[in-house]
Design brief:
Length: 235
């Protein structure tokens, strides 16, 4: 069903009673797939989220889904890790592979915090005893308090496993608007014809920004909105 329904497209095009529902559904899905690609939401890597409203189900990369992802740790070492998704609505499980082949579960608010922007922050780590004198020049050991340390995510490939929910729980209005406006153009004029002469037949097509003709293309405002969404998403 994409980000809009065939009936929505019929209303948008003022042809609610005459629109071809099968064609409209196909065009809407094709446009939604193109939107997801523009935002970096490759269905093969990202999956497709869903939102159900009554008897209608909408699908698209921006919509709600629950997934488990295995991520590379920050190569330079960091207590911050960005998980793919926007917005992140829940993080249910985090495990790290500090030792290859051994997964260790972490505890929320004890070992890590998460934010809707998709940032996981490692917290809590303290030395159990003061360092040996040879490694810590300074005051006598009895005057050295336990030193706070900032833990880091394991800097190894596929070193962090995260189970999370991400995406919008309702169809964003602008996603619906872009889906409808582009689908209306494709439905009405799939080949992009802008001029035709009958006598001595000739035809003129409107070129896309990429030099092609017909098919799916986004105008400047639509492309700008898709670009803003892509900035929020780490794929």
């Amino acid at each position: 069903m994409a980000y809009a329904l065939a009936a929505d497209l019929g209303s948008y095009m003022n042809m609610r009673s005459t629109i071809d529902a099968a064609k409209a559904t196909l065009v809407l899905q094709m446009v939604a797939d193109a939107m997801d690609a523009e935002m970096g939401l490759d269905p093969e890597d990202w999956g497709v989220g869903t939102v159900t409203v009554g008897s209608d189900t909408f699908t698209g990369g921006l919509l709600s889904q629950s997934v488990t992802v295995v991520l590379d740790g920050p190569p330079q070492g960091s207590n911050l890790l960005v998980v793919p998704g926007h917005p992140v609505t829940a993080v249910t499980d985090v495990e790290v592979q500090d030792v290859l082949g051994t997964w260790t579960p972490l505890t929320y608010q004890t070992d890590y915090l998460w934010s809707t922007s998709g940032v996981l922050t490692r917290i809590r780590s303290r030395l159990g005893s003061a360092p040996m004198p040879g490694y810590f020049p300074g005051p006598p050991l009895q005057q050295i308090s336990i030193l706070p340390l900032t833990p880091i995510w394991p800097a190894v490939p596929q070193g962090v496993k995260v189970s999370l929910s991400r995406g919008y729980t309702a169809v964003p209005e602008m996603a619906k608007t872009v889906n409808l406006s582009v689908a209306a153009r494709v439905y009405a004029n799939p080949t992009g014809v802008v001029g035709e002469t009958i006598g001595g037949y000739s035809v003129r097509y409107s070129p896309r920004a990429d030099g092609g003709i017909g098919g799916i293309s986004f105008d400047s405002l639509e492309a700008a909105w898709l670009a803003r969404q892509a900035e929020k998403i780490v794929a």
